[in-house]
Design goal:
With 428 residues, this protein is α/β, with parallel strands linked by helices. Helix content is 60%, strand content 11%. Strand 2, helix 2 and strand 3 form a beta-alpha-beta unit. The longest helix is centred in the middle third of the chain and has 21 residues.
């Protein structure tokens, strides 16, 4: 069982970092930041460590936009001197994921020093990286400690604070998706982990006003929720509780923007907007009566493997298709017995599925929370088109082997409910 990291949120993060490293005799370090995070916190950490006599290799990733990809990983590896060192990630999600991956693959520990309360992955073991144009989450390790400097976090750009709140709002739909996956797809499930993630979400909902005001109390509450969500992922060993359809939309948009060499968007901003869209899927599920379901299941035919593969190839192109097909192997290879079992499960568990759907707030409520925090609520506000929303709704569910609300509607032949239009190619 992974050990939870030491967590400090306060005004004395640098002092606590120095005490921790001295107490554990971690004298050789690698500090990883980008230009912005080095300016707001990294430089003071760097100077404080050197003044205290630590041996520090400093890596400041350049460029207008740092992406967690193979290029960034290689930059950090090239600076590393192959000796035993503790890595320190000074940044938000991107810097943390790059540092987490490199430290794990070089068999070194790492420490997280967040510069914005923008994501829930600080304490998790997963490192989402884009490799070969596909975003996959690689299992690595958690930080041994998190030192969150409250003044730095409270002074983070409003958009990044709103993004962290959006990432937490997405737990409404990810938790619902996880329950559906347990009922219909035998996905591993843990009640205590789900409850812990729900508590982390509730911390943020209860403090939505102070978070929106970016007060120190509100930012502390947001950071506590984000870290607690990450700790639940750490305890479970995967992101099931915190990543569902809303994250699949987000991952899809992220890859599309990368392929088209367009500026990236904040992860949590995309997740928040996607959560409003997925809330509409749950509203549609709530409106399917038993009589409606009987007719829908009568019409539903067993998914045809070749048709599914063709859709994937049309959407993702030949370079990515084989990897996506491999991810969807279980669904694509479904035989008559599998089809009958899944259909029976949907029928038998429909009342439970409806109960799950009722746990998801209306899209208008989610949008209201996001708007108050200063975050976007529509794809237009993200700078994406309605067509790109259709693309994410059509193809995002292929990115993970999980049976989500979106996969359920796809199986029932109700793609139009989720897309509002026909499927398209991402390369169109």
């Amino acid at each position: 069982m992974p050990v939870n990291p030491l967590v400090t949120i306060g005004d004395d993060a640098l002092d606590r970092l120095l005490e921790f490293c001295k107490a554990q005799d971690r004298r050789r370090l690698v500090l990883v930041a980008d230009r912005n995070t080095y300016r707001v916190l990294g430089e003071s950490v760097d100077q404080g460590l050197r003044h205290a006599g630590f041996d520090v290799i400093t890596v400041v990733l350049g460029g207008e936009e740092v992406v967690a990809d193979a290029h960034a990983v290689m930059q950090v590896l090239l600076a590393y001197d192959a000796t035993e060192r503790t890595f320190i990630a000074v940044g938000s999600g991107t810097i943390t994921d790059i540092t987490r991956f490199v430290s794990h693959r070089t068999r070194n520990a790492f420490i997280s020093m967040p510069t914005a309360p923008s994501v829930d992955g600080f304490a998790s073991v997963g490192a989402p990286l884009i490799v070969g144009g596909v975003k996959n989450t690689y299992k690595t390790h958690a930080p041994i400690a998190i030192f969150a400097d409250l003044p730095t976090l409270a002074n983070a750009p409003r958009a990044m604070i709103a993004a962290g709140f959006g990432d937490m709002i997405g737990k409404y739909t990810s938790l619902a998706d996880w329950q559906i996956g347990r009922l219909l797809w035998d996905e591993p499930y843990d009640v205590a982990i789900a409850d812990g993630t729900r508590r982390a979400l509730q911390i943020c909902i209860d403090n939505a006003d102070t978070i929106a005001a970016a007060s120190p109390e509100g930012i502390r509450s947001l950071m506590e929720g984000l870290i607690e969500s990450g700790i639940q992922m750490l305890a479970f060993g995967s992101s099931h509780a915190a990543s569902g359809t809303e994250h699949h939309y987000s991952h899809f948009w992220e890859m599309k923007l990368l392929w088209e060499k367009r500026p990236a968007l904040l992860h949590g901003a995309k997740v928040g907007v996607a959560a409003t869209e997925v809330a509409k899927l749950y509203a549609a599920i709530r409106n399917i009566s038993r009589d409606d379901l009987a007719q829908i299941l009568d019409r539903a035919g067993m998914p045809k493997r070749e048709e599914g593969i063709e859709r994937i190839r049309a959407a993702f192109g030949p370079d990515m298709a084989d990897e996506i097909v491999a991810i969807q192997k279980r669904f694509l290879n479904m035989d008559e017995a599998d089809f009958e079992q899944l259909t029976r499960r949907i029928w038998e568990h429909w009342d439970e599925i409806q109960t799950i759907a009722r746990q998801v707030p209306e899209a208008q409520q989610i949008a209201g929370w996001l708007r108050a925090a200063g975050g976007p609520t529509t794809v237009d506000e993200l700078g994406l088109s309605k067509e790109e929303l259709v693309l994410a709704a059509t193809n995002g569910h292929y990115l993970r082997d999980r049976f989500t609300s979106r996969k359920l509607l796809h199986y029932l032949g109700l793609d139009a409910v989720a897309t509002g239009g026909g499927a398209q190619s991402i390369r169109a």
